[in-house]
C-alpha cells in the first residue's frame, strides 16, 4: 500500500472515531472535488455550498458504513450525488417542464461532432449548466456519473422512459447549444 493510501486510511479511521482534526483534513482533501459535483446539479453558488456542507455532514455521520472495500472517493461521490438529488427533489426544481417548442428550429439531426473538439472543457461544462434542471440532472447522472436509466428512475422517482426522454432532449439541446457556439 502506498503512502498516500496509507495516510487516507489513517484519516478515515480517525474520522470514524470522530476526530475533529481528521474531519478537517478530509474536508480539505475533498471539498473542491465534491463542490464540483454539487455544481453539476445546481447552478447557484450558495446552494452548491449548502449541498457541500450537508454532504460532508452525511459523510461524517455515515463514514462508519464505509467498509474499506472499493474507492473511498467513489463512496463519497455517491453521498454527494444523493445529497444533491435530495435537494432537487425537495425543491421540485428538476421537475420543471420544458416546452420543446421553444427550441424548435434550433435542434438538428446533423450535428458535427468535430465542434466538440473545438470547445474547451469549461465551455462544454457551461453548456451543460445551461440545460434546464431536469435535463441537466438526468444528463449528469447518466453521462457523467454512469448510472443506468433504471437507477436514475429509482433515484428520481420517475419512469425509465422519462429518464430516456430527458436524456435525449438534453443531448439535443446540448448539441444545439454547441452548434450555435460555432
User: What level of helicity do the residues show?
Assistant: over 70%
Q: What is the CATH topology descriptor of the largest domain?
A: Rna Polymerase Sigma Factor, Chain: A
Beta content comes to under 5%
Compute the number of strand runs.
0
Count of domain modules: 2
Largest sheet: none
Cα-atom Rg, whole angstroms?
Answer: 19 Å
Tell me the series of helices and strands, N- to C-terminal. HHHHHHHHH
**Secondary-structure content class:** mainly alpha
The top-level CATH class of the largest domain is Mainly Alpha
Number of helices: 9
Query: How far is the first residue's CA from the last residue's CA?
Result: 48 Å
> What is the 3D form?
globular
Task: Give the integer mean of the pLDDT values.
Answer: 85
Outline the low-pLDDT stretches. Answer: 103-108
> What is the assigned CATH homologous superfamily of the largest domain?
RNA polymerase sigma factor, region 2, helix turn helix motif
| Proper CATH architecture of the largest domain | Orthogonal Bundle
Amino acid at each position: 500500500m502506498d503512502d498516500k493510501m496509507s495516510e487516507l486510511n489513517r484519516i478515515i479511521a480517525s474520522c470514524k472515531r470522530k476526530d475533529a482534526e481528521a474531519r478537517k483534513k478530509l474536508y480539505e482533501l475533498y471539498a473542491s472535488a465534491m463542490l464540483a459535483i454539487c455544481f453539476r446539479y445546481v447552478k447557484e453558488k450558495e446552494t452548491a455550498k449548502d449541498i457541500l456542507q450537508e454532504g460532508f455532514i452525511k459523510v461524517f455521520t455515515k463514514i462508519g458504513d464505509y467498509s474499506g472495500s472499493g474507492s473511498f472517493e467513489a463512496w463519497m461521490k455517491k453521498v454527494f450525488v444523493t445529497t444533491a438529488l435530495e435537494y432537487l427533489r425537495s425543491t421540485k426544481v428538476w421537475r420543471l417542464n420544458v416546452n420543446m417548442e421553444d427550441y424548435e428550429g434550433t435542434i438538428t439531426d446533423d450535428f458535427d461532432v468535430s465542434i466538440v473538439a473545438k470547445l474547451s472543457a469549461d465551455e462544454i461544462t457551461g453548456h451543460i449548466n445551461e440545460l434546464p434542471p431536469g435535463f441537466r440532472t438526468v444528463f449528469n447522472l447518466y453521462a457523467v456519473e454512469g448510472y443506468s436509466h433504471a437507477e436514475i428512475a429509482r433515484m428520481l422517482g420517475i419512469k425509465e422512459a422519462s429518464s430516456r426522454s430527458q436524456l435525449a432532449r438534453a443531448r439535443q439541446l446540448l448539441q444545439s447549444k454547441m452548434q450555435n457556439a460555432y
